[in-house]
């Protein structure tokens, strides 16, 4: 694991952006894996601002988001679908037909298989942007998820639902299930850019970097990835 210690959230976001930008310039048809949540917001701001400044033309890029809540209508303000439109896609020019977000509606088993098929057809993920949950989850791969998992439906833990309640009107509105890209597919990404910020992530980052590789901390599997760079602010790196 390459670890880059950054001063603060903005610095981590900026450094991660410049890393991503240099890879995109080398591969203008790259396939990206993208997360939601608070962590990537700074990176997404850099991407949209950079697009305005002419840093990069995203028209050849393909994206696959890593998760979505089950039962979530696309136009629900809490959907990751709408999150991505608002925070990234409205501000850059990825073609609509090349943006993929798992669908939490209809036959979920079918949606998972179809998502894997689409990723395979796209040639897999070139660059996966990742963050970690406070309990060590990546995407929505909660503790206990097998490392060999493909895209699947997952029961969210109480901890994750509580952590994500800040995005919802009321904690009861947080869905109990989600769809997530599996760990196997994440590990197959050719490169991973990880961002970890804030003191509430320090313990997960410590277990991810220094702990045993165990499904108890799904992020610990990233120790086995051959090409991963961690951008950590001083708080998230505080327990290393
Ligand atoms: C969330 C998301 C993940 C995200 C992680 C960290 O629940 N499902 O995709 O990477 O947990 O979230 P945050 O960046 O908001 O702390």
UniProtKB/TrEMBL annotation:
The keyword Hydrolase applies. GO terms for biological process: carbohydrate metabolic process; glucosamine catabolic process; N-acetylglucosamine catabolic process; N-acetylneuraminate catabolic process. It catalyses: alpha-D-glucosamine 6-phosphate + H2O = beta-D-fructose 6-phosphate + NH4(+). The active site is at residues 67, 135, 137, 142. SUPFAM superfamilies: NagB/RpiA/CoA transferase-like. Its EC number is 3.5.99.6. Keywords: Carbohydrate metabolism, Hydrolase. Residues 15-223 form the Glucosamine/galactosamine-6-phosphate isomerase domain. Pathway: Amino-sugar metabolism; N-acetylneuraminate degradation; D-fructose 6-phosphate from N-acetylneuraminate: step 5/5. GO terms for cellular component: cytoplasm. GO terms for molecular function: glucosamine-6-phosphate deaminase activity; identical protein binding. InterPro entries: Glc/Gal-6P_isomerase, Glucosamine6P_isomerase, NagB/RpiA_transferase-like. The keyword Ligase does not apply. PANTHER family: GLUCOSAMINE-6-PHOSPHATE ISOMERASE. Catalyzes the reversible isomerization-deamination of glucosamine 6-phosphate (GlcN6P) to form fructose 6-phosphate (Fru6P) and ammonium ion. This is Glucosamine-6-phosphate deaminase. It comes from Candidatus Thalassospirochaeta sargassi. The gene is nagB.
């Amino acid at each position: 694991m390459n670890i880059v210690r950054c001063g603060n959230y903005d610095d981590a976001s900026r450094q991660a952006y410049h890393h991503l930008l240099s890879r995109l310039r080398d591969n203008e048809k790259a396939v990206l894996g993208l997360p939601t949540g608070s962590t990537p917001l700074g990176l997404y701001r850099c991407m949209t601002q950079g697009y305005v400044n002419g840093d990069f033309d995203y028209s050849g890029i393909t994206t696959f988001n890593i998760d979505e809540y089950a039962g979530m209508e696309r136009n629900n303000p809490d959907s990751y679908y709408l999150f991505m439109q608002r925070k990234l896609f409205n501000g850059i020019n990825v073609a609509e037909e090349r943006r993929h977000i798992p669908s939490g509606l209809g036959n979920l088993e079918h949606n998972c298989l179809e998502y894997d098929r689409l990723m395979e057809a796209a040639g897999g993920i070139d660059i996966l942007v990742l963050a970690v949950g406070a309990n060590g989850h990546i995407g929505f791969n909660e503790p206990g998820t097998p490392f060999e998992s493909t895209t699947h439906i997952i029961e969210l833990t109480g901890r994750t639902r509580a952590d994500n309640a800040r995005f919802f009107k009321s904690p009861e509105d947080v869905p109990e299930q989600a769809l997530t890209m599996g760990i196997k597919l994440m590990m197959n990404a050719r490169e991973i850019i990880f961002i970890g910020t804030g003191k509430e992530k320090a313990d997960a980052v410590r277990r991810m970097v220094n702990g045993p590789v165990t499904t108890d901390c799904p992020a610990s599997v990233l120790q086995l990835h051959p090409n991963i760079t961690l951008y950590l602010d001083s708080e998230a790196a505080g327990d290393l």
